[in-house]
Structure formats: C-alpha cells, structure tokens
Amino acid sequence: MRCLDASFVVDLLAGDPAAARKAAELEVSGERLSISVPAMAEVLMGAHFAGGGYLRKTLELMAGLEVLPADAAVGAEAGELGAELMRRGERPAASDLIVAASARLHRKILLTRDGAFSTMPGLAVETY
Prior knowledge:
The protein is of the alpha/beta class.
C-alpha cells in the first residue's frame, strides 16, 4: 500500500502529468491509499487558503484516503529515525520525520517527489 506525501497530492491537484499518470495507475490497481496526519495538514492548509473549487476538490480526494494515526508509536518511531539521521549529520524537519515514521511503521511505500525522504533508513520511497 502507498502512503501519499503532500508533494504528490499537491502535484495531482495541480494537474501535474506525472502525478496524474501515477494516480491513474493506482486507481486501476484498486490499491487503498493512505496519508499521514502531517501531510494531510499541509495539503489542507493550502486548500483552505485557496478555498472555492480547489478546497472542494481537495476534500473529496482526502475523503477517499486512509489517515494513518499520529500516535505514541509514530512519535517513538520518528524519534528513533531522527536520531539515526542526526548521527549521519542530517537535520530533518520534525514534520518530515512524522511522515516518514508513519509510512515506515505501517510498512507503506511513501509516494513523493521530495528527495529528503530518500536518505531515511528503512523507508520505502517511490517517486513519480
């Protein structure tokens, strides 16, 4: 199962051809898609700001996604992942850690164009 990063959702809503092709492929497969709480919040912040049809379209898309919980287990996973990256000299954003931890903990493939996720150990990442 795929976990959508905010970058994918934003690109899809903006009509990006690569994101649209990937979405069509996923729709044909019937795969249930998920999103983490921080990615959902990031997307909805922009949608609420834009309002109108963009907000309606975004809410419709979100309604079809499984929202991965941001609970104590995800927090612990994010802390462990962040420490691993700090040992390497990296300083990831806390929101990225929670997105990555959500996907990693729930054994999901993170669908993103954000290269920051490619260095996170144990995280399955797919680009489009």
